[in-house]
Design goal:
Elements: E1 5-9, H1 15-24, H2 34-44, E2 47-55, E3 58-70, E4 73-76, E5 88-89, H3 97-116, E6 122-127, H4 135-138, E7 143-153, H5 157-163, H6 166-177, E8 181-184, H7 188-202, H8 210-222, E9 226-232, E10 238-245, E11 251-259, H9 268-282, E12 287-289, H10 297-304, E13 308-316, H11 321-343
Parallel strand pairs: 4-6, 11-12
Antiparallel strand pairs: 1-2, 2-3, 3-4, 3-5, 6-13, 7-12, 7-13, 8-9, 9-10, 10-11
Length: 344
């Protein structure tokens, strides 16, 4: 099949076709939508392109590439607010496993060949779990390693509630009794306040500086690509918040969350998570990706929400010597400047 495939950059006029393909593909996500990438690039001074794989005139796969400036060139990789930097491939319905596997392998081999020659300093893929076959990249020397996340099935809320750990169910009930409510609104100021508070308390990264983050959220809202949830006290004060990416794909993504440490004992965080599941399910979403499952306290909390541990994979293109040299040089310069500041 590989000889029947062609690959080319998708023109902007064909983005609607690509976005529908992403929404219909199990391996798709909001991160692969041209509309989302355009918003993110505007907030981060970056750029993107989308390469499509075609069998004749039929779109059967593609790769959205997020490109950020790095020293003398560009790198193609994921970042905060872009958890997956992943191909999207067609799902084939067939009773014969060989046919499905061979067709998808041909797509991945064609894509690997293109990406291996793609002109950038560094290229990293973070591939979503519906795509399991990494052989096309392993066979060509890419560094491939597993990566994990939790995905909560919210299609049936009664079943989903039964999967929530009893300790979290107790906290959710406590928050409800205490009079907490949930809003889905445009209150960016409260969101960013709690984002900063979580950064200071836990050392969590700042995703964007305030002006850029505000533009990013406002642009997503205008495109109906996100929901901004708050858990509020009876006074109206927001004590927990989360930003969920939506879009046309049935799986939503909780991309950023924060909470007021003074009110954690109320159960504000699990309460907000559950109420967001209810809201997203009512909107027609069947799942929520909780974003990452590194071994830490936050991941234990995510696991207790009843999610399924899914295995994704990360593939790094071999070579990249100039990128590695420049990165080491920049890191050394930063450490030297930091040491000099401490001596002053």
């Amino acid at each position: 099949m590989s000889t029947e495939l062609s690959i080319r950059t998708i023109a902007q006029s064909d983005y609607p076709t690509w976005n529908q393909f992403v929404a219909d593909s199990p391996s798709g996500s909001v991160y692969a939508l041209s509309t989302y990438l355009d918003v993110l690039c505007s907030a981060t001074n970056s750029k993107f392109s989308i390469v499509g794989l075609f069998k004749g005139s039929e779109l059967v796969g593609g790769m959205p590439l997020y490109l950020s400036r790095f020293g003398p060139g560009w790198i193609a990789a994921n970042r905060l607010l872009l958890y997956y930097h992943s191909p999207v491939i067609r799902e084939y319905s067939t009773k014969v496993p060989y046919e499905r596997t061979s067709r998808q392998l041909a797509i991945m081999q064609t894509l690997e060949s293109h990406l291996r020659a793609f002109d950038c300093l560094h290229l990293l893929l973070h591939v979503r779990h519906p795509i399991e076959d990494a052989r096309a990249f392993l066979s060509k020397g890419w560094d491939v390693r597993p990566n994990y996340s939790y995905v909560v099935d919210i299609a049936d809320l009664q079943s989903a509630w039964g999967r929530v750990h009893q300790n979290l169910r107790r906290l959710i009930d406590r928050a409800t009794t205490s009079g907490l409510t949930v809003t889905d609104d445009d209150d960016f100021d409260s969101f960013y306040r709690l984002h900063i508070d979580t950064h200071r308390r836990k050392g969590a990264p700042l995703y964007l500086k305030e002006p850029a983050f505000r533009r990013y959220v406002q642009a997503l809202k205008a495109q109906d690509l996100c929901r901004l949830y708050h858990a509020r006290l009876p006074t109206g004060e927001s004590v927990a918040t989360q930003l969920v990416l939506t879009g046309g794909h049935p799986v939503s993504h909780t991309v950023c969350a924060g909470a007021d440490s003074a009110h954690l004992t109320l159960g504000s965080s699990p309460f907000l998570r559950w109420k967001a599941f209810e809201s997203l399910s009512a909107l027609g979403y069947s799942g929520n990706d909780l974003t990452d499952a590194a071994l830490n306290d936050v991941t234990r909390f995510k696991a207790q929400l009843g999610g399924e541990l899914v295995q994704n994979w990360v593939a790094t293109r071999p070579g990249n010597r100039l990128f590695k040299l420049y990165r080491v040089t920049r890191q050394t310069t930063r450490r030297t400047k930091s040491a000099l500041r401490r001596l002053r």
